Amino acid sequence: MNNEIRNLEPKALWNKFADLNAVPRPSKKEERVIEFMIRFGQELGLETIKDEVGNVIIKKPATAGMENRKIVVLQSHLDMVHQKNNDTIFDFDTQGIDMYVDEDWVRARGTTLGADNGIGVATIMAILESKDIAHPALEALFTIDEETGMTGAMGLKGGVLEGQILLNLDTEEDDEIDIGCAGGVDVTATAEYDEELTPEGSIGYQITVKGLNGGHSGMDIHKGLGNANKIMNRLLFDGYDSFGLQIASINGGSLRNAIPRESVAKVIIASIYDEAFEFDMQQIINDIKNEFQTTEPNLEVVIEKIDETPKNVMPPMAQYFFVRAMYTAHNGVYRMSADFADLVETSNNIAKVEVADGKLAIKCLTRSSVETSKFDLANSLRSAFELMGCEVEFSGSYPGWSPNPKSEILDVLVAIYKEQNKSEPSVVACHAGLECGILGTNYPDMDMISFGPTIRGAHSPVERVSIKSVQKYWPFVLEILKNIPSKN
Questions:
Q1: Which end of the chain is more exposed for a tag (fewer CB within 10 A), N or C?
Q2: Locate the Peptidase M20 dimerisation domain: which residues (predicted)?
């Protein structure tokens, strides 16, 4: 029950998180959470603005004695990734998130939790509502559509904000302070083909890849996790080469920023290959499961006959090019950073594959902290897909956030972290797509930093946030607000 969440400490933050998670807030459908946030600001008697793209800005004056400090922008995004397990019955458009406590973790039952970035939003709400937290003048910036296009950050015009410092509350390791992030671009390949009738004497099979961990396609891309679309393609490639398998349909993955956990394909083979096909497939499945036994212990691949054989299939030549292009297309880490230890510089996530009714689409998210490297990999993908006859589109490109190691607010955060925790924080750049780089295009002089509590499994149904970490993070935020530098 969410009452269990409301009794956690700090109650001010957890209660706002519970309030927020009662409001459906998928990316591109933020109308209800925008109204929720506008009503919240207005009921507090604070200046509340909705800009032309839907971002909400709430302004709160400085507390007594803090008027001479620099204005601070507290920033988080309102939308959340909606993912659920196949066997979970849940309507994201109408239901609030069902949360529960599991030892040190807050989780959701069978769905994403929305801690990304709901904990950040709840933090800001608790500060806006408070009467006893010392702080300079605040501009709370709640952006929309961060997860599927960053159109909120892109649409925020210059001159709307007066703040000189921006605290982005959207990272997922409580011992890290982020000073840079990757940019990204969507790569979409589409094609049409003339279906052919299923040959006589064929039998139908459904192949299902499931049980993968999934995760954030930026923060988790280096962990060696399985990609359901790539695993499925291995099976289809071998089935085609060995038994003339033909594809009727594929539905794999979901959102571009989520590593795909599941894929389902319907295929046909000649009935004479029945037993040999199942035997051969099981050998490949065993090999794949052995490869992933450490990172994906719950991987399942199920091959089962279907009662109704598909009537139409992809023709052999179109399929020949499709499975080879999918094999060629890079997935995972492309290049590690030469400037920051253990940082992924460039990567790609083959996020969604759809094949049905004479149409196919392959959707990727390519990330990099180096703009030229981002398009180098994007062009590599484009080349593979164009060689199979696809139209390829680049869209939704957004810039990375270049690190500023001389940041004034960075010095403040490092000093407070060391004092509170008796240890050094990790000052890093991350491979996720934070909004700081985009916001910096219209606010180039704003000093930006990003931090947050520990969140695991973001963008997947195993998403969870550490309770102890939130209890560590909350006093960190409050002490930062007390120590904002004075105006020049």
A1: C
A2: 208-292
